[in-house]
TrEMBL record:
Keywords: DNA-binding, Transcription, Transcription regulation. It comes from Glaciecola petra. Pfam families: TetR_N. This is TetR/AcrR family transcriptional regulator. Residues 29-48 bind DNA.
């Protein structure tokens, strides 16, 4: 008879998200994970698989929550300029948020895993602490998340054009790329612990530019 797991898998996964979110993949050992979750290594393996599988499960659950909450407005079929503004205004207060003070788990992971250039030297890849080719499933998930955010911003901007919130000749691809750059940059700064004023100024300048384009 199979042995019944004596722990809450949802709670264990939430704890795994917290540790990976705070320390990253490379700096989170399974020994630490056992201590942090309170679940034996055998139990974690039976429920989730190895470290990579657990990390992917953590990313997927975090992603579900992110799009159901922070990106819910921007992903709405009726999303427009106001929803984009609301998302970025949250980033101004994010450093004081209980969880977001660690930045965005998905952005943190993208910074850890994704390389900006496929021709990056072996020395550069080695110094990053991660071998990109070793984790195709993680990279695929992170790339898909990046594209999903881009599509959300793009759709909201198109709606904003239809509602005359921004000019008809607005370069949607360029502005959606700017939205992504600001989101990834701001959340990276939040994790770094740099001055909140830097984030606030960057977001406010961007929002003023959007408003001025109307």
């Amino acid at each position: 008879m199979a042995r019944i797991r004596e722990f809450d898998e949802k709670l264990a996964l939430n704890k795994a998200i917290e540790l990976f979110w705070q320390k990253g993949y490379a700096n989170s050992s399974m020994r630490e994970m056992v201590s942090y979750t309170g679940v034996a290594h055998a139990g974690l393996y039976a429920a989730f698989g190895g470290k990579e599988a657990l990390f992917i499960a953590a990313l997927e659950k975090y992603q579900t929550g992110l799009f159901a909450n922070l990106f819910a407005g921007v992903e709405s079929p009726r999303a427009d300029l106001k929803d984009i503004q609301k998302l970025f205004r949250f980033l101004i207060s994010a450093p004081q948020d209980k969880h977001f003070r660690f930045g965005c788990f998905l952005v943190n992971s993208a910074n850890e895993f994704l390389q900006p250039n496929e021709k990056a030297s072996k020395k550069e890849m080695k110094s990053s602490g991660i071998k990109v080719a070793t984790y195709p499933n993680i990279n695929k998930l992170l790339q898909a998340t990046f594209e999903r955010k881009k599509q959300a911003f793009s759709k909201a901007l198109k709606n904003a054009i239809e509602k005359s919130q921004i000019p008809k000749n607005t370069d949607v691809d360029a502005i959606s790329a700017q939205c992504l750059t600001l989101y990834y940059g701001a959340t990276t700064l939040i994790r770094s612990g740099l001055s909140d004023d830097t984030i606030k100024q960057s977001v406010e300048i961007f929002l003023k530019q959007l408003k001025a384009s109307n």
